[in-house]
Structures are given as structure tokens and as C-alpha cells.
Amino acid sequence: MCLDMRILIYGINFAPELTGIGKYTGELACWLRSRGHDIEVVTALPYYPEWRVGQGFSKWRYVKEVFDGFQVIRCPLYVPSKPNGLQRIVHLLSFTFFSFPALLWSARKRPDVIVVVVPASFCAPAAWLTARLVGAKCWLHVQDFEIAAAFEIGVIKGKWFKKLLLRFENWMIRRFDSLSTISNEMLKVLLAKSDREQTVSLFPNWIDLMEIYPLSGANRLRQEFNIDPNCIVLLYSGNMGLKQGLEVVVRAAEQLADDPNFVFLMCGDGVARTDLQQMAEGLPNIRWLPLQANERYNELLNLADIHLLPQNCDVVDLVMPSKLTGMLASGRPVIATTYPNSQVAKFVHTAGFIVAPGDVNGLVEAILRLASDPILRHRFGLAGRAIAEAEWEKNKVLRSFEDDLLDLLAESGKAHAAAEECD
Q1: Whole-structure pTM over 0.85, yes or no?
Q2: In this structure, what DSSP letter does residue 250 have?
Q3: Which of 202, 244, 263, 413 places its Cα 20 to 30 Å from the Cα of 419?
Q4: Which CATH number is 2-206+393-420's, of 3.60.40.10, 3.40.50.2000, 3.40.50.360, 3.40.1190.10?
């Protein structure tokens, strides 16, 4: 039996952001609404990955809207154009400050559960307190260990400050009724931070296999972008931030600049894009594109002959790149810069090549190997599609999460009367 739940989702990123956490939180809310649950969302104004508030929004005004049949409250926040460590902290704290009243207002309807999506960690205590005030269960879903990652890549510095923030994070995590995260390696980190009495589960990001799938024949984007039909397209699509380690792609393009058979497409935006473009100045084989609309996303992924998935060496076990699901679902091979024992490597080793983070020569060698062997590219592509089908099919992943929510509420007797048969 399927039980109606009142679910309040709380997090800084949400649709219509096209990439990263906002994309998945938006899809989660819409899917739960389609299952008959009563959904409300408290989030920030859209700003990611461009780091500027979306057109039509004022950064200092609250916005209430109906999104796919449920209410969304968007809260003001400070958005620095090129954030440093202090500015990032102020950015996150501004969301915590402005969103807390909206969270309390939404909680007046007494949700059964508040689902908090991290980042941002700083807003999690407000959610926990609100849940206790209204008698709701509180679920923390970790998309990114942002605090540890920020120190590892040097965005925030100071040993004493790191120790203080990590103590805060551990204290916060142990307050929640249930915890989840998106990869097995991140699950180990979360288990180490959690209380033994808590439920800790794997809730990976997903892919809609009906929307992202291999295409055959001519790709119209190749003609639209004026790319020679015989060129090998190496695609990176997504956020261009500090955690991605994208400098290695520019250096690889530099080594292959004299070979007209390669085109590097850098599709996306983020705080590192301007610096990367300056690094790539004068290179004839790199093109820079904005993020593409959802209706063009499958064609974009299929434009790639080879997908590139770079990662900063310091954060390989603290984040799980959400873009990997689409890469593999598109049936194209992947070259990832990561360590052999990382979570990414466990998925990519049968669907492409693994190169050490920052290893430009290794990346170039992998590119040349795949470029010269279309049969190997096809074999890797088939293997990647099989992984996506087995691990990340959208309805399978989301139904498992729905079941976990229902189990949490059933344990406390908070679930409503049965409303309808589940499919």
C-alpha cells in the first residue's frame, strides 16, 4: 500500500538549475508529488552554476511560486560573483538566515518529515530544530561533504577552523533521524560521523533512461556547432568549479593543439570558467559553450565520442560527480581522472579509462588510445549503458527512497492512512 506523506524539502539548490544538486532535488520533489505525496519546498533563488541570481529574480526578495503542482518558497541570499572562502561562508550563512523564517512558516502545516539536502550544512540545525518543534521526522541527505572538500582544495584555510567546523558537522549529523548519501565511499564517511542508532542508507543520484539513451546516425548539434564529421569530440559538460580539476583538460588540449582531428567542448559555467578560458587562450581545438537546455541534453551527450570526467585529487572520496550517470547512460566511453580505488573508478573501469588526477600525459595517452579504436569505444559505451541501467534507473532509485521514508514514518506511527495502491 502507498501512504500519503507530507514532505517538506529544504536545501539551497533546486530547479530550474540545470546541473548538480538543484537538478536532482527538483526531480525528487516532482517525482514524489507524482506519487500523491503532499510536497512543499524551501530553497534559494536559482543561482548555480553561474553564481548569479537567475533572470527575473531579485536577490533580496522572497518568491512564492507553484512548481509542478506544489508550493516552492525561494529565499534571498548573498551570491558573490567569484567566491573566495569567506564569501562562500557568508553565502551559506545568508541562506540559513533568510530561509529559517520561511522554513518555520512552511512547517506550520506539520509535515511528517523534513528532508534536508546538504550542502548547505549550516542550514541543517534550523531544519532539525523546526522538525522537533512540529513533531516531524528529519532526514539528512548528503550530496557533498562541503566542509571537508572546501579545506582540501584550499577554499577555506586554518587548522583550528577546520577542526571547529568538522566538530559542528559531526554534532549536526548525529541529531537527525535518518541519513543518506550518494556513493558507497561517501557512505563510509557518513557512517563514521553518525550515531549507531541512526538509519544510514545509500541514495544515489539517478538517470531517466527514457530521456538519456544512445543515438545513432548524424547528430544535428555537430552541424550546428560547425564540427567536422570526422573529428573526435571530447566533451566536458557541467559545473566548472574548483573541485573538478579542469586544468588537466586544458593542458591535454594544449598537447593535441596541432592535431586537427580533436575538438574539446567545454560546456557549462562556474567560478573557474574565466581562469580556464584564459589558460586556453589561443588554443584552436577548445570551444566554450553554455549549459544546454534539458531538451538538448541527450543530443549533447551523444555528440561526444569520448566523455571527460576530471576530478581534483583532494576530493575524490568526498564527492560523487552527478554527471557520471548521464555520461554512462549515453553509451559513450569515459576517461576519468581519479584514483583506482575510488567510487568513480569502480564504475568507469569497465566503461573507459582511469588516469591519475592531474596526469596530463596519461590523459593524452588515453585519448589517443580511444580515438584510434572505434570498436573499443563502442564496447566501453555498451558497458557504461549497462551500468546505468543496473545502478541508477530513476524509478528504481526513487521508489527505494520512498520506501525508506515510509519505513521511517511507520516506525514512529506518523504515516497517514493508506491512500492508494502503489505501482
Answers
A1: yes
A2: H
A3: 202
A4: 3.40.50.2000
